[in-house]
Amino acid sequence: MNQSVRRLNQLSGKLAEAEFLKCCGSTRWAKRMSQLRPFASLEEVSSKGDEIWLSLGAGDWLEAFRAHPKIGERKATVTQSHQAANWSAQEQSQAQQAAAEIKAAIAQGNRVYEDRFGFIFIICASGRSAEEIANALKERLGNDPKTELRIAAEEQRKITQLRLKKLLTS
Q: Which one-letter DSSP state was computed for residue 2?
């Protein structure tokens, strides 16, 4: 068993929830993950994380989305831990280093997206260029709200998986 998994298993329920909230801003998801401990491996944490995420509803997904800064910004709507804020900055580093016109297109797209769907644009930005992010944003604006919520939830799932790995391999 990985040392980080062992440490996570030994935390109090509240401290484990706080660790999980760094990975996903849904309080229900974090609480259920904490309750499922002990985990035998990183693979089990990952598998259970997906299982719980996919069992949640739109309200839980929207709560998780609010824990992210908008693409190209540094601050989330709700307070996030220092570690989660750092992870967001790393994940969005390509968007933050983009040319001014790409940054402006993303900022404008963020406003239109949020007006259209009622939540921020969520994308697993790790490894994606600012141009790829801007294109995905533009493309996803054509979705109907129900489809877009499912796509955003899948992007959140990917982000959560990346962060679980960061949490448990550091």
A: -
Catalytically active residues, by annotation: 68
Encode 48-74: b = buried (16+ Cβ within 10 Å), e = exposed: bbeebbeebeeebbbbbbebbbbbbbe
Does CATH place domain 3-169 in 1.10.3330.10? yes
At 92 the pLDDT is 58
Of 37, 32, 29, give the one whose Cα is nearest residue 12: 37
Enter the pTM of the model.
0.88
Stated as kind and residue range, the H or E segment containing 42 is: helix 42-55
- What SS3 class is residue 76? strand
Distance CA 163, CA 159 (A): 6
